[in-house]
Design a protein that fits this description.
Helices cover about 45% and strands about 15% of the residues. The chain has about 260 residues and is an alpha/beta fold. It folds into two domains: about 170 residues, TPP-binding domain (Rossmann fold, 3-Layer(aba) Sandwich), CATH 3.40.50.1220; about 90 residues, 2-Layer Sandwich (SIR2/SIRT2 'Small Domain'). Helix 1 packs across helix 10, helix 5 runs parallel beside helix 10 and helix 8 runs parallel beside helix 9. The longest helix is centred in the first third of the chain and has 22 residues. Bound molecules: adenosine-5-diphosphoribose. The site of adenosine-5-diphosphoribose has 22 residues, from loops.
Amino acid sequence: MAKWGEQQHTEEKIKQVAQWIIHSKRTVVFGGAGLSTESGIPDFRSPGGVWDKYNPEDFYYQNFIASEASREKYWQMATDMYEPMKKAQPNPAHLAIAELEKIGKLDCVITQNIDGLHQKAGNSEEKIIELHGTAMHVTCLHCKKRYDRDAIQERIRRGTKVPYCDDCGGPLKPATISFGQAMPERETEEAYQRSSACDLFIVIGSSLVVQPAASMPLIAKRNGAKLVIINRDPTPYDNLADILIHGQAGSIMAEILNAVKKQLS
Ligand code: APR
């Protein structure tokens, strides 16, 4: 009975979230690595995640700047992590978020992910705020020249250990934000703005432990938005959520989208 009750309870929550989306003027979706695990990209803090495999310290920006050896280690790990991202396809959660934009019910998606799957799913660039940058291209840390990621991976495949800028000789790094690296100003400001102006804030697949990203749901809530958290495991903000759904992002978001379309038809 408990199982059935739980399932029925989840169905009611899904219907309620769908109703809130329909009546919302500005719905913001906030994504974390849990949005992409069903696309084959490991998250960071679940068992078997990235930080089980690599030491986060090796990803610190200061280390990358400090030595050739750290840069070489970083590029080995970045190459490892890039392969699954490149092959990954959007899963039902990404597709549901793209569909919300199509039916005019998405203000924006603020993502901590660097895998470009919201673009692949069909969300327009201007609706996507990549708080932690993107692994899909590479930039020179000195002159900011931009390189295609695959072109740089090809150099590494051919034996380059640490790639440097053709123009200025500066170190090249994927356009992601590492621990210790300054957050992207425009994206962070935009994310704060959108979080404080929305009336519905939906967190999907994030442990909500990394700042300043994790303060966005709090800002939304403080400014009067309803807060929905969809996540497999508990988060520090669960007690703040108006609706909390523990489970798989893909199936839950697909059901929410179906409920929205049913209520709109
Ligand atoms: N469906 C729902 N939730 C899921 C799924 C899934 N299929 N898979 C994983 N999760 C949940 C996990 O329970 C976990 O709480 O997603 C969350 C992922 O948390 P993290 O691995 O900490 O990822 P994230 O919150 O995005 O991390 C934030 O930390 O290391 C930095 O820069 C990195 O952007 C990342 C940031």
